[in-house]
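Task 17 of the worksheet. Students: predict the tertiary structure of the chain below and write it out as C-alpha cells. Keep your answer in the requested format; marks are given for formatting as well as content.
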Amino acid sequence: MGKETSRVRKIETIRIAIVSSSFRAAVADNLEKNCLKELASHGVKKTQVNMVRVPGALEIPLLVKQLAKTKRYDAIITFGAIVKGKTYHFEQIADECIRGCMNVSWDYEIPVIFEVWAVYDLKDAMDRATRKVENKGVEAAESALAMIEAMDGVG
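Model answer:
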C-alpha cells in the first residue's frame, strides 16, 4: 500500500488499538516503535492509537475482544513473542492466542493484525522486530491500513 493511496475516509478519523504482551517486552517495544513510525508516515497521529499492554500472549485475545466490543476501533494490532521451552505449553499458548484473536475478528468484523510469533529462539523474534527491511511492526501498520481501506470499500 503506497503512501499516496486514496482512502474512502479521511486518515484523521481512523482509530487503531495495539495490544502487546509485556512478556518479552523488548520484542513488543521494537514492534510498537516501528508500527507507530509507519502509521505516522501515513498521517496517523499518536492520539489516534490506543496502546495497551497485557502480561502475556494468552491474555491478548481477551483484551482484543474488550476493545472490539467498544466499536471505537477500525483495526486492532497484536504484538508478542512466545518462545519454545521444554514443555508443550508453547504450543498451547500459541494455538489459543491465534484462535482467540481470529474469533474476535470474525465475531466483531474487525481486522485483527496478528504479529504474535511462536519462535524457537528469542533471537528470531528480535530479528523480525528490529530489521530494517521486512520489519513486522511496519508490515502490521501497513496491513491495518490496507484492511481498513478494504473494509470501507465494501461497507
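Marker's comment: Residues 14-149 form a domain with the Rossmann fold fold (CATH 3.40.50.960). The chain has one domain: 14-149.
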